[in-house]
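request received
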Amino acid sequence: MLRALWTAASGMTTQQINIDNIANNLANVNNAGFKKSRVNFQDLLYQELRPAGAITATGISHPTGIQIGLGSNVVATEKIFSQGNFQQTGNMLDIAIEGDGFFQVTLPDGNIGYTRAGSFKLNSDGDIVTPEGYLLEPTINIPENATSISIGTDGTVSVTLPGEAATSEVGNIELARFINPSGLKSIGNNIYLQTGASGEPTTGVPGEDGIGSIAQGVLEMSNVNVVEEMVNMITGQRAYEINSKAIQTGDEMLQIVNNLK
Amino acid sequence: MLNGLYVAASGMLQMEKKLDVLSNNLSNINTAGYKMDTPTFESYLKKEEDFPQDIIRQSKYNQTINAVSRLAEVATDFSSGNIRQTGNPFDLALSNPDAFFAVDTPFGIKFTKAGNFKIDNDGYLVTQQGYRVLSRNVENNEGIRIPNGNVSILGNGQITVDGTVVDNLYVVEFEDKSKLQKTGYNLFTAIDTLPEESENPRVMQGYLEESNINPVREMVNMISTHRAFETYQRVIRTMDTLNERAANELGKIA
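response:
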């Protein structure tokens, strides 16, 4: 049967994955710390009907070959770690990273997860935790009677205790940085895990060695750009449609063949 | 039987191949750096040089009536695709339509227009498939290792991290691009031609070259393919009717 049918079908399948990805980006448009992903495509194999350089009966070699491509597929979905917009919240435990880097949190299974979502809370013991209750790593405990918390751009956390004029330091927020953040694995809840492709994390003081600095009272919003996603959605839909037209044309041509006799 | 039948059938077969090529173009409408393919056809008849003594083959009549059509080549159109801003530091576009990135693959050095690169776990600049992008420093060509820091890539392919030059992209051009053959995975192979280093690669960081498919053109092509296919079918049916008459009516005694 016609190669074109399967070729166009592969195009429809890739566009379907493209739309799935756009839908996920749009679903997380208001999710603090969310990073959009992008689908990357590649062309598939080529069927060689005549190799380039083949010699004809008359002894002339063809300068170019005849190759027919067999469609497209998805090669990777890639997280784009561009900076999201900042929103002033005034909440003392809303922390944003300006630049590269991730907060480290301890997951229930003991592994370290990495996140950009900086809407932290305190748990009943006074430890800084994510909204899911995962402890910030290294653990920072805020004394029960602290009247205010201040976090410096270098991650120093200090508190004011009642009756004391000077602030006292209770810990430091460390950030982790990856050579290839696009290789991190998303596990939901805005948390990423290290993989072979992301490389080992290098931890450090915010604001040094290429690690971003910290801003208190600010939340990093998602970096999803609605206009861009809408345009991607429109082109994705049209690409899907045009591939379905190719299938339809192929089908009608087969119908013509069937009407030959 | 009537030779025209085979000529019309060859036309149908070629239209089928044309649709295959069009479908592949449409399937890759969102593939970064994809270049459009165009099939061209030729008429084919065993040439007189092959059979110098054969008078019938050499006759103009025979050449007009019996030359079937066949696929001559699938040519790739290397014109620039749209260049889209993405803001991703490792998305590189070559706004010079003649320039290609050189990539090291297990099956030799290949060339690509798809500049959606990333960094692998050893810190090398790689394509989405994981093949290393080659550096201009050909003697020691292990790829381009990019240390942590603020990466900025200049128009001439120079890569700087925190203001220090670390490497140069190996961007090449070809004298005859028709000798580039597609290998899939957004790569081209150079057949019987050698790359020359591009003097003006015009690398754009944070931009990505999209495919150069023009959907309107492809739609029009698809419609004309469909209609041509239909026409050949009519020709075949007409000839079949003629044969039917010859078989059933000519010999009839009234």
